[in-house]
Amino acid sequence: MKFDPRGNQNGYHRRKEHRRWHFDYGVIRREDIKPFQILASREKSIISAVIVAASGYDGHYAWLSHVAQVMADGRTVSEAVYPEHKYTPISGYLNKYIAGDARVTILKLRDGLFPNDEIRRTAERKCQLYHESLAGTKYDFPVLIPMLITSVMRNSIPFLKNGPWYSIPEEKQKKILICSAEVDDGWGWLQREIHHDIFPSTLSLKVPSPQDVWDSPDTNFVAGTRKIYNIK
Fold first, then answer.
1. Do residues 229 and 21 make contact, with C-beta atoms less than 8 angstroms apart?
2. Domain spans of the chain, in order of start
3. What pTM, to 2 d.p., does this model score?
4. Residue 16, pLDDT above cutoff 80
5. Which residues pair with 9 in a beta bridge?
6. Which segments within the chain are labelled E, that is strand?
7. Lowest-pLDDT choice from 48-57, 90-99, 131-140, 188-197
8. Is the pLDDT of residue 6 over 60?
9. Top-tier CATH class for 16-229
């Protein structure tokens, strides 16, 4: 089944008004994408499906499995992609979106997070420097597998659902493939400056999931895919 950027999924013909929710596949124009926005996505792969399953909680189902930070050039994203950190042209994601092979959503931090222009400029510069520092980082992906399996079990077995799940040893966090942690860390200076957690996590007090980046009240939708809940 393909993701259809025109607003429907091939082979799935139930009328939208009879569903609890539907995906809206809006157009992403190249000019919509600005420096320091965030790209969120969901591709058709086993690992993407596992991340979505692991990111849900208490009946809240995730629909995004990856996030990447748009760099200062506005043309590339910094992302954790096994086995080594990459700087990927945004055009590749847009081509997949147009072809119906991925969901892609563009987000931005809400303007009210920045008390003034000086703090915005400093935060963006610190974010850029952090993501530049990730060049050549190699990830220890196998260490992530037990965490993913445990999170899936936690969301499937009722008596495991309560409370945050601390499953990533702190010393391992910088070597594990966690795209959302990199987005979070990139805005670390801003979060310390304004004394506010931009990306609160639903599964751990330390590491947000890709879905948490979308769900944060401090990110705003710009363009692309949205999950729309029908109001009856």
1. yes
2. 16-229
3. 0.79
4. no
5. 3
6. 21-25, 38-43, 66-70, 76-79, 86-89, 102-109, 219-229
7. 48-57
8. no
9. alpha beta
